[in-house]
Amino acid sequence: MARFGINTAKAFGVGNTALRPFARRLGRNHERARELWRTGWREARLLALFTDEPRLLGLDQARAMVEDFDSWEIVDHAADLFVDAGHLDELVPELAADEREFARRTAFAMIAWGAVHLKTRDDADFLRCLPLIEAHSGDPRNFVRKAVNWALRQIGKRSMQLHGPALELSEKLAASEDKTARWIGRDAYRELSDPERIARIGRNRR
Description:
This protein has helices spanning 16-26, 30-38, 42-51, 59-66, 72-84, 88-96, 101-117, 123-127, 130-135, 142-158, 160-174, 179-192, 195-202. The protein is mainly alpha-helical.
């Protein structure tokens, strides 16, 4: 786990392949999830994220959870929960403006998850995220730059309507003088310009 950048200060060493089936057997329970989160243990917090009830997760509780973030693994699963709880519009700009590495990563992980899973949202909602991606494309911190890149790629793969603007931004960033923005742009452009990828996007329902 440590080799993959996961915080193991309070971890039992149980992998997600065991935690996921266990979470399904447990079922969802909001109050239990809150208690599990408060323990501070990695596995307990993952179970909290896997078994919480999104409709009961309020903005204030989500913001309080962000204060505890200490690992990209926890961030990415929490981002999924925050999107499912309906907090994309409020939290993304707020957390993108937050200077803390894991808080900012949360914003872009939420964009990436939302672009894939919020099927009924209008493409314009994600088009509005592209300026945010561009604004933070120069953040060199590893867990931020990877999430910014992830968000850009997922937006570009959502639909043909979004593919063009995302590809254009990728090309722009790839030509940037900033090393981090250049890496983000080149990596995203490589995927979004692939003919097979474009064909798959074209077959999407959108």
